[in-house]
Structures are given as C-alpha cells and as structure tokens.
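Protein modeling request. Please complete all fields; requests missing the sequence field cannot be processed.
Requester role: graduate student
Desired output: 3D structure, token encoding
Chains: 1
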Amino acid sequence: MIYDQLPNAPLYTGLGERFAQGFAYLQNLAPDAPEGKHEIDGTDLFAAVQSYETAPPAAKKWEGHRLYADIQYVLAGEEIIYHRDIARLTVKTEYNPAKEYTIFEGPEDQSLIMRPGSFAVFWPHDGHKPGCFVTSPATVRKVVVKVRIA
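Delivered output (150 residues):
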C-alpha cells in the first residue's frame, strides 16, 4: 500500500508504464470530469470517476482484487479507507471474476484519512474498505484508476 499526495506522483512512475500513465491521467484530470468509466489504455488501464455518500464502517465491505492494483484519488470531500493484508482477513464471498473482487470481513484497525489531493495504491494483497465516514456522512468525489498487473 502506498499513501501520498498527487504532487509526489512522479516518485512512483518507476512502478511501470501503466502507473506512469495512470498518474499522468490524474494530474491532467479536469475537476468537472464526468462520472463513469474512462478508458486510458483499454482494459489494462482505466478510471472510474464517482461520487457517493460515506457511511459507517459496518455499512461498507472489505474488498480485494487479483488482476488490478487500485490508485484511489480523492477530488473532493473526505473519507476513511481501512486497509489490511488479505492474509489477516476472512473470505466472506469467494472471488468473482466478472466483478474482479473478493469480499472479506475483519476488523477496522488500520486506516487512512483521504482528503482532496491524496491518493492510495492498493495491491492485490491489500484488502481495503473505502467509503467510510470520518466524523459524519459526507459526499466524496473520487477517481479509482484500475492498473492491470496480472
């Protein structure tokens, strides 16, 4: 897992060309970009721009992926994303290849507060539970860049 601010993204372009393209996309993204899926490089690299209301952790799900790393970047609002190695979580719903995730369950003992300009990279071994409120429900506008690594 990586947690940083977008101005520091050039430090992570060495992770590979797809990551470099993903960070370039975020750095050039218009704040009013339409919601929905945006292809960057076909199914190997794409982004989902979304808005939603944060909720208590009990209302959210732990997830993990096999084929993609996530770059989760907050445009507006704030949220907590809990994170934990999937080896320390329990599988609740087996891997769904069509949706490209496994649902897990476990305690919320490690967290990141995501605010505008911050990003986090989650690898396949990083379980994550996004969309949790910081102090009370709030609207978050976020981009999730999916980077194919497998």
